[in-house]
UniProtKB/TrEMBL annotation:
<dbReference type="InterPro" id="IPR002481">
    <property type="entry name" value="FUR"/>
</dbReference>
<dbReference type="InterPro" id="IPR036388">
    <property type="entry name" value="WH-like_DNA-bd_sf"/>
</dbReference>
<dbReference type="InterPro" id="IPR036390">
    <property type="entry name" value="WH_DNA-bd_sf"/>
</dbReference>
<dbReference type="Pfam" id="PF01475">
    <property type="entry name" value="FUR"/>
</dbReference>
<protein>
    <submittedName>
        <fullName>Transcriptional repressor</fullName>
    </submittedName>
</protein>
Length: 140
């Protein structure tokens, strides 16, 4: 837990109990999750507290949002040195049509995208969809 405390403090986040257990749960899951999915794990906490925790994490580059085409925003932990900057920290996401999981493929970086003059990208989200390795193993 001390490692999580240091991580949060290094990003200027006060390590409250809710923030610590939320970070720990996100690290355990290792997939992108919606606020609703995360809320199921924390039955005794208020939805607004969890929402504020995720917003704080997002504002301080602890998590990033993923729009995977399901109509529900999901959150995933950022890489260690991530600053969530367009053009620097972008990676591919994969949504499995079979199990419904969305994962970050951080080793697969999105190349720099050159927009026409006058255009400014505020967010870039690239999601590949198909069947993940776990589900594909069962098909063979």
């Amino acid at each position: 837990m001390e490692k999580i405390v240091k991580k949060l403090e290094s990003r200027g986040i006060r390590p409250t109990a809710m923030r610590l257990i939320t970070y720990k749960r996100l690290a355990q899951l290792n997939v992108a999750v919606s606020l609703g999915e995360l809320e199921k794990h924390f039955e005794r906490s208020e939805r607004s507290t969890l929402f504020r925790t995720m917003k704080t994490f997002e504002e301080n580059a602890i998590v990033h949002q993923i729009e995977d085409g399901t109509g529900v925003i999901k959150y995933a932990l950022c890489e260690e040195d991530c600053e969530c900057e367009v053009g620097n920290d972008l990676h591919l996401h994969f949504h499995c049509n079979s199990c419904g999981e969305t994962v970050c493929l951080t080793d697969h970086k999105i190349p720099q995208i050159n927009l026409p003059e006058g255009y400014v990208a505020e967010d870039i989200n690239l999601v590949a969809k198909g069947v993940c390795g776990k589900c594909n193993d069962g098909l063979e």
